[in-house]
Amino acid sequence: MNTSYNKYDSIEKLIFDEGLKISSLVFDFSKDKMFIHLNKNLTLIVRLSLYKGLKKANPESLTNFAVIANGTGIHWPELDEDLSLKGFFRDFLRQHVGGDHKELVIA
User: Fold this and answer.
1) Residues 48, 54: contact at Cβ < 8 Å?
2) What domains does the chain contain, in order, with CATH numbers?
């Protein structure tokens, strides 16, 4: 039996191994979207209304954020809200694997 210890879960390992970091954040309030640009020419598009702390926030509070945790998290000081790349990936998987989807396309 292999008893080696892995200090990261699989999502954290992916983020660490690929060196993924948040490079910028852009909002489209009219479409309830947050565009999280990553350093590997990737963009995560997230609905603001999915997150209770962001859902009712005004644009001024939302645009007052800091990238934290060596580029893997976002902190909104006025909202006392923190979100992470790990959480975004986990939420994506829950939505797409846990639903009625018959196939998940990775291109």
Assistant:
1) yes
2) 17-97 (3.30.2020.40)
